[in-house]
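Dear Dr. H.,

I hope your travels went smoothly. While you were away I took the liberty of generating a structure for the chain from your last submission, since the lab meeting agenda had it listed for discussion. I wanted you to have the full record in hand beforehand rather than looking at slides cold. The sequence, exactly as received, is reproduced here:
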Amino acid sequence: MIETRITKLFGIKYPILCGGMFWVGRAELIAAVANAGGLGFLTAATYPTLEELRADIRKAKDLTDKPIGLNINLFASVRPQPIEEWVQVAIDEKIPVVETSGRSPQAIVAPLHAAGVKIMHKVPGVRYAMTAERLGVDAICVVGHEAGGHPGMDEVTTLVMVPAAADAVKLPLVAGGGFADGRGLVAALALGADAILMGTRFMATQECRGQDAFKDWMVHAAETDTVYCMKSIMNPSRLVKNSVVEKVVEMEKKGATLEEMLPLISRQGPAVVDTGNMEDGLVSMGQAVGLVHDVPTCKELIDRMVEEALSAQERLGGIFKRKAPA
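The corresponding predicted structure, in token form, is as follows:
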């Protein structure tokens, strides 16, 4: 066990979280993370209907007796999102922890807290972390520029973001962006975080949805095989580098509008993951893909990370020695 404020708050064994991920944050993955001692978040926006969401939550609960979480995405969307209904599902299904991201969670803090649900709000900047603390959430996750998905407009790396956030807020803090092994876990804890959140690394596990060809691409990818783009339309994203993304980047350089880019950027979905054809569309991916070298089970991954963390701690113990008082 590695005990931190986050492990105590969420009732988990290790300070390792699997963040909400569109299309792949499903029951099998989330339950496997839970059984291995971490905490994962099913992603509400993945499911076409509330009934399908409820069914997958119940499936996850059948696969584990450990805590599981639910991601509620608050980002603006072309289609109205059923946020109030997702909140009610979390309450009805007795989800212990909700991860929110995107816009302010202010409207849903009270109903979730009234039902005993803890809230971790994910943000891409220190000023947003401070706002979330004032709104009364229970924990904050800050993600640096390395993160897949939406790392924010400011392009601040995790190495700077985490200690800056740790200095600015008092709540338990989770670090995201660039983490894939036990060395990163120790680094995050040293920077002032209470846990790490991984997405990309958990995509390359046996329990995660995805074709073998897609996971094989991850194993052989480099840290340079992602692209940060769409900042010009206020929707910064880090995605797999492929021909579709290259077209998006080229349009962005020419000053294309959101409407002009929409036919391309709307090609985000499970196609790449499910076919293994890396040119099928856009898929979120963090720079940590360069640290992915195999496709273990979630238990194998987390157990290995804990051993790596202990080895890193021992190495540091041999380097740093406090001088005895004279």
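Two observations you may find useful: The chain has two domains: 5-211+291-319, 226-284. The chain is about 40% helix and 15% strand.

With kind regards,
E. W.
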